[in-house]
Every structure is written in structure tokens, then in C-alpha cells.
UniProtKB/TrEMBL annotation:
<keyword id="KW-0862">Zinc</keyword>
<dbReference type="Pfam" id="PF03884">
    <property type="entry name" value="YacG"/>
</dbReference>
<feature type="binding site">
    <location>
        <position position="13"/>
    </location>
    <ligand>
        <name>Zn(2+)</name>
    </ligand>
</feature>
<protein>
    <recommendedName>
        <fullName>DNA gyrase inhibitor YacG</fullName>
    </recommendedName>
</protein>
<feature type="binding site">
    <location>
        <position position="16"/>
    </location>
    <ligand>
        <name>Zn(2+)</name>
    </ligand>
</feature>
<comment type="function">
    <text>Inhibits all the catalytic activities of DNA gyrase by preventing its interaction with DNA. Acts by binding directly to the C-terminal domain of GyrB, which probably disrupts DNA binding by the gyrase.</text>
</comment>
<feature type="binding site">
    <location>
        <position position="36"/>
    </location>
    <ligand>
        <name>Zn(2+)</name>
    </ligand>
</feature>
<comment type="subunit">
    <text>Interacts with GyrB.</text>
</comment>
<dbReference type="GO" id="GO:0008657">
    <property type="term" value="F:DNA topoisomerase type II (double strand cut, ATP-hydrolyzing) inhibitor activity"/>
</dbReference>
<dbReference type="InterPro" id="IPR013088">
    <property type="entry name" value="Znf_NHR/GATA"/>
</dbReference>
<dbReference type="GO" id="GO:0008270">
    <property type="term" value="F:zinc ion binding"/>
</dbReference>
<comment type="similarity">
    <text>Belongs to the DNA gyrase inhibitor YacG family.</text>
</comment>
<feature type="binding site">
    <location>
        <position position="32"/>
    </location>
    <ligand>
        <name>Zn(2+)</name>
    </ligand>
</feature>
<keyword id="KW-0479">Metal-binding</keyword>
<dbReference type="InterPro" id="IPR005584">
    <property type="entry name" value="DNA_gyrase_inhibitor_YacG"/>
</dbReference>
<dbReference type="GO" id="GO:0006355">
    <property type="term" value="P:regulation of DNA-templated transcription"/>
</dbReference>
Length: 83
């Protein structure tokens, strides 16, 4: 019979920086406590985290004004808007 010994990994809490155990024993992992987990959740909810991306090629060719969205008519090219 073999026994598997799981070593607890120590990580820094992403919110406060305290060292905490990353294992099944810590229900808030990778955070050190519920408070830090909730602080991070609140930051996500407020939009403080975002993934930066460059605009896709051709995105500026679309007319997505309020009028276009209301009527459901999107102009495909800038030239179409000038007509």
C-alpha cells in the first residue's frame, strides 16, 4: 500500500501579501481569508481589473451610434455613412 503525502504550498495572498497555505485546508485559496477574497471580488465588480487589447482591424469602419443601434441598421463602411 502506498501513501501519498501532499505538501502544502505556501503562496502570498494576492490582496494583502501575507503568506498563506494553498491547499484544501484553506477554503479561501489563493487568498489568506474571506476578507481578502471579498476585497478582490469587489475590485472585479467595480471594473478595476481589465484585459488590455488592441482594436481589431476594421472595427472603426462600423457605425455603432445610438441611432444605428435603435434602428438595427449598421453601416458597413465610412463611405456608406456619408451618403
Amino acid at each position: 500500500m502506498q501513501y501519498v503525502v501532499k505538501m502544502a504550498i505556501k503562496v502570498k495572498c494576492p490582496t494583502c501579501g501575507r503568506e498563506c497555505e494553498y491547499s484544501d485546508k484553506n477554503p479561501y485559496r489563493p487568498f489568506c481569508c474571506e476578507r481578502c477574497r471579498l476585497i478582490d471580488l469587489g475590485a472585479w465588480a467595480e471594473g478595476k481589473y481589465s484585459i488590455k487589447d488592441k482594436p481589431m482591424e476594421g472595427d472603426d469602419d462600423l457605425d455603432i451610434s445610438a441611432d444605428a443601434l435603435a434602428t438595427g441598421k449598421l453601416a458597413a463602411h465610412k463611405a456608406d455613412l456619408e451618403k
